[in-house]
Amino acid sequence: MNEIRQLVWNGELNVLVSIDPSFLMKGSPKEMAVLRIRVPRETYLINYMPLIWNRIQDFLSFDPLNEKEKYFWFEHNGRPIRWNYPVGVLFDGLVASSATFVTSSGIHPENVITLFKVHLVMGKSLPSTVIPILSSSNQAEKFWFHQWKQVCFILNGSSKGIMSLSVNESRKFWRSVITRNFHDFTEISKKISPSRPRHVPIIIQTHKDLGIEVISQPTISMTGVNPTLRDIEQEVISAKEIIDAGSYVIVSQGIEIPWDIALFDLYLKFRSFDGFLYITLVPKISVARTFR
Amino acid sequence: MSRILESENETESDESSIISTNNGTATERARNHPELKSSTHTVQNRLELFSRRLSQLGLASDASVDQQLDSSASSTYEQKEVNKTNTSTSEQKNIATEQKSRKEEPDAQKIQIKFQPIGSIAQLKPSVCKISMSQPFAMVILFLKRRLKMDYVYCYINNSFAPTPQQNVGELWTQFKVSDELIVSYCASVAFG
């Protein structure tokens, strides 16, 4: 299992960040407005804000760290992106080819280069679904820690597991995310995860091609049973208007997941760095369209 | 505009407010169905608490409308009263069926939130409110900010974690409810880092 965890942990994406020209002074070189970075699936986009600011600081038309009247956010094809989900989860929900690596036999994954294009924009008001990006350096850390507290509560019925970590362990936990230290991350996350959870922390999102943006967090009870994905099909597809269960595939960490996998097993192998298991419902039509 | 959040004994009738009350409901039900009073100690205690609050406010006699219903439902209620004299019984049945089915829609169901202050921040009165299950948690934060007239309020579930503003209140209630109430603690500064 550790091998699968390690592969998931090492997953990376090519991200192209384009910066809106309004950030830059007139006459700034165009190449400064584009940033190509390789980003782990298991991180937040805002962890790269210092890198972005640093890259364009000489050409900025204002000081973003002291800006009070403007808000910044990321967009993908004109759609605001919620930075509070891991980059890999955003990719799975927005980019059409995410599920094709395993479903298309004629294509070798190593020959496919996918690019996650995001656009950094600003405005006087923030889209309603987006959490503001603050200038404080530890915004992501604080948010992530609360996610883990919530996960701990769902798994154990209280947040004692994570709250009883020492200050050093808490710091080490976040540092393991930043420095990509799989060993430290596994060691500390194990302390929080029980062998018999009460519920499984799961977040289900719909792919953009479904035309509706639904994100749900159902309560999946684990008392006395270890259900498979098939057993919780109703909870998975209860994401509002999605009715036909046979018309989509389930994707987690960019991989198509079979219906008969045990849920807790799936959780332990595929959970994200914030402790949640993210599942994306991808319509089969968008999978087929990519390689037509 | 229909109301989104309901508190237990607020009396203002501003339609644009996100708050409404259910005080009248409890009193009305208790009056019409005395058996409810003896059903459980909790219900009895709450009813007593309500009537005590009402008598303090001098509003007991005015509490006749089921204020749990939103404004559209209230208009249906009024319409129903008029229909008693003007329309046939079958039409009334249709309205009742429509009302019932509307109430049974999961998203239209309301859940209770209990607000608990942390530190020196003002206590919300009443401390228990109702909100539609389909609302995001951002609505709860907005309500607190308006009620407390503050720019920033930090909210925590079960004195433990801060949910994201995008999370669905109904899902939070299902996962973290205590005695059928979602416990939301609030503070003027960071309380649980």
UniProtKB/TrEMBL annotation, chain A:
Pfam family, one: ATG5_UblB
Subcellular location: Preautophagosomal structure membrane
Occurrences of domain Autophagy protein ATG5 UblB (ranges): 199-281
The keyword Protein transport is annotated on this UniProt entry: yes
Span of domain Autophagy protein ATG5 alpha-helical bundle region: 138-194
Membrane disposition: Peripheral membrane protein
Keyword field: Autophagy, Isopeptide bond, Membrane, Protein transport, Transport, Ubl conjugation
Ranges for domain Autophagy protein ATG5 UblA: 8-96
UniProt entry tagged with the keyword Protein transport: yes
Known function: Involved in cytoplasm to vacuole transport (Cvt) and autophagic vesicle formation.
Subunit structure: Conjugated with ATG12.
Family: Belongs to the ATG5 family.
Protein name per its UniProtKB record: Autophagy protein 5
Organism: Saccharomyces uvarum (Yeast)
Gene that this polypeptide is encoded by: SUVZ16G1380
Automatic annotation (TrEMBL), chain B:
Polar residues bias (residue ranges): 68-77, 84-98
Superkingdom classification of source: Eukaryota
Subcellular location: Preautophagosomal structure membrane
Keywords: Autophagy, Isopeptide bond, Membrane, Protein transport, Transport, Ubl conjugation pathway
Segments traversing the membrane: none
InterPro entries registered for this protein in UniProt: Atg12, Ubiquitin-like_domsf
Pfam families given in the database record: APG12
Location, primary (coarse class): membrane
Biased composition (Basic and acidic residues): 28-38
Annotated region (Disordered), positions in chain: 1-42, 68-106
Entries under Gene3D superfamilies matching the protein: Phosphatidylinositol 3-kinase Catalytic Subunit, Chain A, domain 1
Entry membrane topology: Peripheral membrane protein
Role summary: Ubiquitin-like protein involved in cytoplasm to vacuole transport (Cvt), autophagy vesicles formation, mitophagy, and nucleophagy.
PANTHER family: AUTOPHAGY PROTEIN 12, UBIQUITIN-LIKE PROTEIN ATG12
Subunit and interaction comment: Forms a conjugate with ATG5.
UniProt record similarity statement: Belongs to the ATG12 family.
Protein name as it appears in the record: Ubiquitin-like protein ATG12
Gene: SUVZ04G4260
